[in-house]
């Protein structure tokens, strides 16, 4: 997407003037040489690298807006990728289906365990995750967070955790790692031990709200949680879409990783969608999904950098062909679910995307009896937009070259006119 002229035009003018200034100084010594072209190119690359041509960062453009950009993504359970000792999707296949297919989510919350051989070996996990992270590093908008189900009293699981964290520590797309509190205890000693492993590998920890008191005064990032669209009387606060964010909250996870009995569910939210419907929806439809996307905008960008959806999975009879190209039950891979997000203008206009969009794209839902209520999401696209910064740079180089040649020709003509012998004219008569 092309940024407004008011942002790039002053930069282009400044760059052109700098190029012309330096080349004026060099042109006398290099008048009969093409060396000045090389100098111009090097100078232009330096300007690009130092940010003179840096793209203005705007939400929805597929360009990061800095530390407070809005990212949306899904909770992915490792068992949707690894099953029975097998890897169901290659890293490239997963990456293309998850990140590079509408709605182009820019964030991923990947939940994984550390029991050896369950469901695949740790070395296989290391290789798969590092390949995905390497792909993610090529896209500056992409954020990958890990949710670790690890027993910190089991030395083999701790060793496996250390192996995975060490392997991933060199990738810029790996942003945060969280300790799952629900299964193996949630004490301060456990959290401190977990944080120590992350600190040794320079990966920031992300906390559940229940863990923030363990690190009082450190202002560590928090991922909050809302059960919506599920609801239980014992935790009605968790059913709310909107809650006043905690001081260091950076995002929120919605939903539950559970089986959805009916997809899409027949449920209408009340006019005030801050609270779940009663009885609860316990499932997903377009209104429910777009309520999460829209209601998250009521929170400041700083406190809602991340909006995660734990979409769950359908029963076996509702298996469908996912955007990743395999038959699956996982709703993050469901074309219809994803199209609900992509069709919401509030998402397109306010959330960053994993990548810049192709020049043309179309979304068609093709329903067939074999995939029930979902459909195949077909995307047709041409080549990506030409990097606009590159166009500006090349234009500046060409302008500098033309300007120098123009003044060189003028100087040559002036010099020739001054050296014409007396009694002759410039026409030789």
How is the secondary structure organized here?
Layout: H1 5-27, H2 35-49, E1 71-77, E2 82-83, E3 86-87, H3 91-99, E4 107-113, H4 122-137, E5 143-149, H5 155-168, E6 174-179, H6 188-200, E7 205-206, E8 222-226, E9 249-255, E10 259-260, H7 286-295, E11 306-310, E12 313-314, E13 320-321, E14 327-328, H8 335-342, H9 345-350, E15 361-366, E16 376-381, H10 388-418
Parallel strand pairs: 1-4, 1-11, 4-5, 5-6, 6-7, 8-9, 9-11, 10-12
Antiparallel strand pairs: 2-3, 13-14, 15-16
Helix pairs in contact: 1-2, 1-10, 2-10, 3-4, 4-5
Features:
alpha/beta; 429 residues; globular; TIM Barrel; two-stranded antiparallel ribbon; disordered C terminus
Can you tell me about this structure?
The protein has 429 residues and is α/β, with parallel strands linked by helices. It has a domain at 71-357: TIM Barrel, CATH 3.20.20. It is 34% helix and 16% strand. The protein is built from ten helices and 16 strands. It has an eight-stranded parallel β-sheet. Strands 2-3 form a two-stranded antiparallel sheet. A two-stranded parallel sheet has the order 10-12. The longest helix has 31 residues, at 388-418. It starts with a helix and ends in an 11-residue tail after the last helix. The model is unreliable at 46-67, 359-388 and 420-429 (pLDDT under 50).
């Amino acid at each position: 997407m092309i940024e407004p002229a008011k942002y790039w035009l002053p930069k282009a003018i400044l760059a052109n003037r700098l190029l012309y200034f330096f080349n004026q100084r060099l042109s006398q010594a290099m008048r009969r040489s093409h060396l000045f072209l090389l100098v111009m190119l090097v100078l232009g690359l330096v300007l690009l690298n130092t940010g003179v041509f840096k793209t203005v960062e705007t939400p929805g453009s597929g360009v990061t807006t800095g530390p407070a950009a809005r990212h949306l993504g899904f909770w992915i359970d490792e068992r949707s990728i690894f099953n029975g000792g097998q890897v169901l999707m290659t890293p490239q296949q997963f990456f293309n289906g998850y990140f590079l297919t509408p709605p182009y989510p820019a964030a991923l919350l990947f939940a994984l365990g550390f029991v050896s051989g369950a469901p695949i070996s740790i070395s296989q996990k290391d290789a798969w995750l590092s390949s995905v992270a390497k792909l993610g590093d090529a896209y500056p908008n992409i954020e990958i967070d890990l949710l670790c189900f690890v027993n910190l009293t089991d030395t083999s699981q701790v060793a496996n955790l250390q192996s995975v964290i060490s392997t991933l520590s060199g990738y810029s797309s790996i942003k945060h790692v969280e300790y799952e509190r629900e299964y193996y205890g949630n004490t301060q000693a456990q959290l401190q031990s977990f944080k120590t492993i992350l600190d040794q590998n320079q990966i920031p920890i992300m906390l559940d709200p229940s863990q923030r008191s363990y690190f009082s005064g450190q202002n560590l990032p928090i991922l909050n949680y809302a059960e919506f669209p599920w609801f239980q009387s014992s935790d009605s606060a968790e059913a709310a879409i909107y809650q006043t964010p905690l001081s260091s909250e950076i995002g929120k996870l919605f939903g539950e990783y559970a089986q959805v009995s009916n997809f899409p569910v027949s449920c209408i939210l009340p006019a005030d969608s801050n609270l779940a419907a009663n009885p609860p929806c316990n499932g997903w439809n377009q209104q429910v999904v777009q309520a999460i996307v829209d209601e998250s905008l009521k929170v400041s960008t700083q406190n809602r950098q991340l909006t995660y959806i734990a979409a769950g999975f359908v029963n076996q009879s509702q298996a469908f062909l996912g955007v990743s190209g395999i038959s699956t039950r996982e709703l993050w891979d469901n074309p219809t679910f994803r199209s609900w997000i992509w069709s919401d203008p509030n998402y397109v206009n306010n959330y960053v995307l994993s990548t810049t969009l192709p020049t043309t794209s179309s979304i068609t839902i093709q329903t067939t009896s074999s995939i029930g209520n979902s459909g195949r999401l077909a995307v047709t696209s041409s080549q990506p937009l030409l990097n606009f910064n590159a166009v500006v740079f090349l234009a500046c180089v060409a302008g500098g070259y033309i300007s120098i040649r123009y003044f060189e020709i003028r100087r040559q003509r002036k010099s020739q006119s001054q050296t014409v012998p007396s009694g002759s004219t410039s026409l030789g008569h």
